[in-house]
Specification:
The protein is built from 14 helices and 29 strands. The chain is α+β, with helices and mostly antiparallel strands. The protein folds into three domains: 14-191 and 200-207 and 410-451, 2-Layer Sandwich (BirA Bifunctional Protein, domain 2), CATH 3.30.930; 251-378, YbaK/aminoacyl-tRNA synthetase-associated domain (YbaK protein, Alpha-Beta Complex), CATH 3.90.960.10; 469-559, Anticodon-binding domain (Rossmann fold). The strands form seven sheets. Strands 3, 7, 8, 9, 10, 11, 12, 21 and 24 form a nine-stranded mixed beta sheet that branches. Strands 16-14-15-17-20 form a five-stranded mixed beta sheet. Strands 26-25-27-28-29 form a five-stranded mixed beta sheet, sandwiched between helices. Strand 25, helix 12 and strand 26 (499-502) form a beta-alpha-beta unit. The protein is globular, with a radius of gyration of 29 Å. The mean pLDDT is 96. Bound molecules: adenosine-5'-triphosphate and magnesium ion. The site of adenosine-5'-triphosphate has 17 residues, from strand 8, strand 21, strand 24 and helix 11.
Length: 560
């Protein structure tokens, strides 16, 4: 490719809303341009990267027997209603009708569509297992699309779905997909961790996420210093800390205007871990909402995703004082015996000698016991740095990551709902046991830059760089430079090297700064040294320049 013919409009200026290096460099380098909120065009360079990543994903999946398909981007709403996700997916799901009033959704993920494809076509256990995938556009009307390609509304995803006769076969495929995703990320040159995850709106029994370590990541990952344990903070567990609650006199105590956990612990002269904290939220469902209360230890923090999962709501939002009053709750004095929908953290089970609200203005209970009390106990806690690992007791730490892949053991949730069955070994109809596996192709374009860049631009990795090499002709008006550069370019192209010839009639400095911004691994500068028989190789990462004899440059490059 000749730079003079390439459409890569590089700029000095970054978009106003761009804060992350990947967003800045991808726009400045002319890889992508914004269409609207969370929607991007891929220009030629961006499209090359996108295709390279897709190719790696495809090669690794095909190697382990997955089959590529391509489903319609739009899915009939009927299927989503049947699975129960039409309402559950909330506002992220874009619903619309055609001219004949047929209802559709823009596919944010394709469990329903893939089950419908397999239904009635895969009939017997003899045709199982089968793993079908596609690399296709998704649409999610994200509440806060941002960071360029990292959180778009329209994005490219590889989504795969496996169908099995039993759990054992699913577990085998799940392990194979975990291994395959690892290989894909290794080939892309990314440092990552596989972590236990929350299954979110997709549902299912177990799931793992692939997190690329990056300081600008939106996800918090809990890792253990002593063992392999790693989990998304939304799913992370800890060893229950040993807390010896001091004996607190049983009974109702007058606590005028003592409302916060801090006030309570000061008043009773105890640690905040002895108090029970009430967190009130409004749970929003498809056609109604209700007030719910979550109870945790005063020293702990509520993990919002765990709370959301427990409540089964679409969304949890804060409540106003008026809404509290309307349901008879008294802010600052809410205790577990209140008559309202509530969830209690698992670590409070059987705990004694605690302080909690008495559900009466200006009163708290002392010596409260959870023993022999019937509550819905669930894990609601956010693990903190310094907590102890639930596997080995080691110390937990928290680091930042970007989710690039997510694999789920789904079970028969979708096949049952959509009535998709096969005949098992005993000739009995049984719903498919399923797995689902997603990897964000367009997000990966940004993730590579997020993990590999410097203050001048991107540093593409071996398998993601649009070109392996740029030949920069320093002065295009110099016939000797021009013809040497052209010659080298042709010879390398014949050898199959992905080479860009910077033959533009621009200043050398301008071409060099484009080379730095675009971030291909190496450049050859054909410049003034040519009269003395020398050219230079520049390494993009170190920016080191090495003089090489013009007669040796071709062989040297072929060695790389
Ligand atoms: P997130 O937690 O980041 O919103 P998710 O858990 O909703 O992602 P999945 O449903 O697991 O995403 O989708 C599989 C993969 O698709 C993700 O691992 C991610 O790489 C990619 N992906 C999801 N949402 C987006 C988005 N808005 N923009 C770009 N890629 C996305
Ligand atoms: Mg996910």
């Amino acid at each position: 490719m000749r730079f003079s013919k390439l459409f890569a409009p590089t700029t000095k200026d970054a978009p106003k809303d761009a804060v992350l290096p990947s967003h800045i460099y991808l726009v400045r380098g002319g890889f992508i341009s914004q269409v609207g909120s969370g929607v991007y065009n891929f220009l030629p360079l961006g499209k090359i990267v996108l295709d390279k990543i897709s190719k790696v994903v495809k090669e690794e999946l095909d190697r382990v027997g997955a089959l590529q398909t391509e489903l319609g981007f739009i899915t009939p709403s009927k299927l989503w209603k049947q699975s129960g996700r039409y309402d559950k997916f909330g506002k992220e799901l874009l619903r619309f009708s055609d001219r004949k009033n047929n209802e559709f959704v823009l596919g944010p993920t394709h469990e329903e569509a893939m089950v419908d494809l397999v239904k009635g076509r895969v009939k017997s256990y003899k045709q199982l297992p089968i793993n079908l995938y596609q690399i296709n556009t998704k649409f999610r009307d994200e509440a806060r699309p941002r960071y360029g390609l990292l959180r778009g509304r329209e994005f490219l995803m590889k989504d795969g779905y496996s169908f099995h006769e039993n759990e054992e076969s699913l577990k085998e495929e799940f392990a194979l997909m975990e291994q395959t995703y690892g290989k894909i990320l290794d080939r892309l040159g990314l440092e990552y961790r596989v972590v236990f995850a929350d299954s979110g709106a997709i549902g299912g029994s177990g799931s793992k996420e692939f997190m690329v370590l990056a300081k600008n990541g939106e996800d918090d990952i809990v890792t253990c210093a002593s063992c392999d344990y790693a989990a998304n903070i939304e799913a992370a567990k800890r060893t229950k800390p040993k807390i010896d609650n001091p004996q607190i006199a049983k009974g109702k105590t007058h606590t005028p205007d003592i409302k916060t956990i801090e006030d309570v612990s000061k008043f009773f002269k105890v640690n905040s871990s002895c108090a029970v904290k009430a967190i009130v939220k409004k749970a929003i469902f498809a056609d109604f909402s209700e007030i719910v209360v979550f109870f945790i230890r005063g020293s702990d923090t509520l993990q919002e995703t765990k709370a959301l999962s427990a409540s089964l709501a679409l969304e949890l939002v804060d409540v106003s004082e008026k809404e509290l009053e309307d349901v008879g709750l008294i802010a600052g004095f809410i205790g577990p015996d209140v008559e309202i929908k509530k969830f209690v953290d698992l670590e409070l089970k059987d705990e004694e000698s605690l302080i909690c609200g008495a559900n009466e203005l200006d009163y708290h209970f002392g010596g409260y016991s959870f023993k022999d009390r019937e509550f819905e106990y669930v894990d609601l806690l956010e693990v903190c740095k310094g907590d102890l690992c639930s596997c080995c007791g080691g110390v937990l730490d928290i680091t930042k990551g970007i989710e690039v892949g997510h694999i789920f053991e789904l079970g028969d949730k979708y096949s049952k709902a959509l009535d998709a069955n096969f005949l098992d070994r005993n000739g009995k109809a049984k719903p498919f046991v399923m797995g689902t596996y997603g990897i964000g192709i367009s997000r990966l374009v940004a993730v590579v830059v997020e993990q590999h860049h410097d203050e001048k631009g991107s540093l593409w990795t071996k398998e993601t760089s649009p070109f392996e090499l740029t030949i920069i002709i320093s002065n295009i008006k110099d016939e000797a430079q021009k013809s040497f550069g052209e010659d080298l370019y042709q010879k390398l192209k014949e050898e199959g090297v992905e080479v860009l010839l910077d033959d533009r009639a621009e200043r050398f400095g301008y071409k060099m700064s484009d080379f730095e911004l675009l971030g291909f691994p190496k450049a050859v500068i054909v410049g003034k040294g040519l009269v003395d028989g020398e050219v230079q190789i520049v390494d993009r990462k170190s920016l080191e320049k090495t003089n090489i004899s013009k007669d040796e440059i071709f062989d040297k490059l072929m060695e790389f």
